[in-house]
Write a structure and sequence with these properties.
Blueprint: E1 7-10, E2 27-29, E3 45-47, E4 64-69, E5 96-100, E6 120-124, H1 127-133, E7 140-144, H2 153-159, H3 166-177, E8 182-187, H4 192-201, E9 205-208, H5 214-254, E10 266-272, E11 283-289, E12 295-302, H6 307-325, H7 330-344, E13 352-359, E14 365-371, E15 377-380, E16 386-387, E17 408-411, E18 416-421, H8 438-451, H9 456-471, E19 479-486
Parallel strand pairs: 5-6, 5-7, 7-8, 8-9
Antiparallel strand pairs: 1-4, 2-3, 10-19, 11-12, 12-13, 13-14, 14-17, 15-16, 15-18, 18-19
Helix pairs in contact: 6-7, 8-9
Length: 487
């Protein structure tokens, strides 16, 4: 189907642009204009002298139609240079309205925005033209669903008898074309039900062609623009809240829930990702109790702290829990985890450190396996905290294809606290220099806080807070700390 060539349509503004209450309604035909005096022939009109203009609300202005073909993409409301001095022209552009309708001579009265500036008008006879004219400066779309002449309504209704949603289909196309623009629907009062359906589909409001005037249209356009802005803001707020809720559920799903039913051990954990606004980092931990009464605890660290490392850490944690319930421990378990790492990592240089502890059912002994990870901190009742031996540890997972990880037996005693941590806790700086806290500094710090009577989560929060203060700000690496107590 050939696309009709649009024609330039321009409106001559009043002598002084202002709000509706101050506008002039008197107009006179221009001599020699084609079709002058014919109400249906949207001819050129000029404003009456200022002295003859009443102060009441204006009657609607007709749009002017020029016989010259339109050469650009924009149909604008042009101002005559001799009508208003340059210093009286508004400094910023007002609202722009795009009219979409089959009748190129649709009667649209003059409109004014909030600041009393005249609303600019563009017209399109179909969606093809509308898509060209729908630029960023268009604020509102007026979709004319009414036929060109009232007498055509019977014929139009007969045509759409087999497709009752044809006109709303046009509206849906416009909404898909301009999802961020306010949309008004223009129709006849006899189509009130369809107009209401248009609002249900997504239009901001509807207007009846029979009752249209400048004041009504101006208010409707301004209302539609503000309502659309409010709708978009509300949608963004709702999406942000839903995203926050989804992130919270994701965090609860990815961070482990300890499975210690039947155990007399107390569990506490502290987790802080190094990435800003992140939920998870490359650190991971877990604690479970198997049917034989043994409590298994694990803490690990994937090198790096981006989203890929966080995902790999979750995979390793879930694999560890599954393998532990399957009865694997020590070297066999770590060798299997290394295979998981090798298959799931995005780069061959990615590795992970790991520390596993298997605490006997009576709570007096533990088996310790280290894969390139710092040794845990053990504090027995009445003694200062001390680091467990590291000499028998093996390499980090993912470094050596056929590595071995020996399991060392450790005596815990009857009453004790065991703290497992990642290197983010010990690599923070001390003061302004380059000196790091280190394991010795952490041992002294935790022992001092234990001496004050802190336990559980309060102890972990206080330790991490003091490490952060010594660093002079937030720690850049992920931090995970796990504490098991037997009193």
């Amino acid at each position: 189907m050939p696309v009709p060539v649009p024609h330039q349509r321009s409106v001559v503004l009043p002598h002084q642009a202002g709000p509706v209450d101050d506008a002039c309604a008197a107009v006179a035909p221009v001599a020699g204009a084609p079709g002058a005096g014919d109400a249906t022939d949207r001819s050129l009109r000029a404003p009456a002298p200022a002295a003859d203009r009443p102060s009441a609300h204006p009657a609607p202005y007709g749009l002017q139609v020029s016989d010259q073909p339109f050469t650009g993409q924009q149909r604008v409301v042009d101002q005559q240079p001799d009508q208003e001095p340059a210093e009286h022209k508004p400094a910023s552009q007002g609202l722009t309205l795009l009219l979409i309708g089959e009748d190129p001579n649709s009667h649209v009265p003059e409109m004014w925005d909030w600041a009393g500036r005249k609303v600019r008008l563009r017209t399109a006879r179909n969606l093809t033209e509308a898509e060209r004219l729908l630029t960023d400066d268009v604020h509102c779309i007026l979709l004319d669903l009414a036929p060109a002449e009232p007498g055509d309504r019977t014929e139009r209704e007969g045509e759409r008898a087999g497709a009752p949603d044809d006109e709303l289909g046009m509206l849906r196309d416009v909404l898909r074309l301009a999802p961020a623009h306010a949309v008004l629907v223009l129709t006849y009062e006899t189509d009130a039900e369809r107009a209401a359906d248009a609002v249900r589909v997504g239009a901001q409001d509807y207007l009846f062609r029979d009752e249209l005037d400048g004041a009504v249209l101006s208010r409707a356009v301004r209302y539609a623009v503000e309502r659309k802005r409010a709708d978009l803001a509300q949608r963004q707020l709702t999406e942000s809240r839903m995203l926050a809720q989804e992130n919270a559920r994701l965090e609860r799903g990815l961070l482990p829930t300890p499975l210690l039913d039947g155990s007399d051990l107390r569990f506490a954990a502290c987790y802080r990702p190094g990435r800003s606004r992140a939920l998870l980092g490359g650190d991971f931990y877990d604690t479970v109790r198997t049917p034989d009464g043994t409590v298994h605890a694990m803490i690990g660290d994937v090198c790096g702290h981006g989203p890929d490392e966080a995902a790999l850490g979750v995979e390793l944690r879930i694999a560890w829990r599954a393998l532990t319930f399957a009865g694997l421990s020590g070297d066999e378990l770590l060798a299997t985890l290394q295979k998981v790492l090798e298959h799931e990592r995005s780069d061959d240089e990615i590795f992970a450190t790991l520390c596993t502890v298997d605490i006997s059912a009576d709570g007096h002994r533990a088996g310790l396996s280290l894969a390139g990870h710092p040794a845990p901190l053990l504090a027995r009742a009445g003694d200062h905290p001390r680091l467990l031996p590291y000499e028998f540890g093996g390499p980090a997972l993912g470094l050596l294809p056929h590595a071995r990880w020996p399991r060392r037996q450790v005596e815990l005693g009857a009453s004790w606290s065991l703290m497992m941590y990642t290197d983010g806790l010990i690599e923070g700086r001390i003061g302004q220099g380059n000196q790091r806290l280190g394991q010795e500094g952490m041992t002294e710090l935790v022992g001092r806080q234990m001496a004050t009577g802190l336990t559980g989560e309060e102890l972990l929060d206080a330790a991490v807070r003091e490490v952060r203060d010594l660093n002079g700000g937030e720690l850049t690496d992920d931090v995970a700390v796990l504490l098991l107590d037997r009193r």
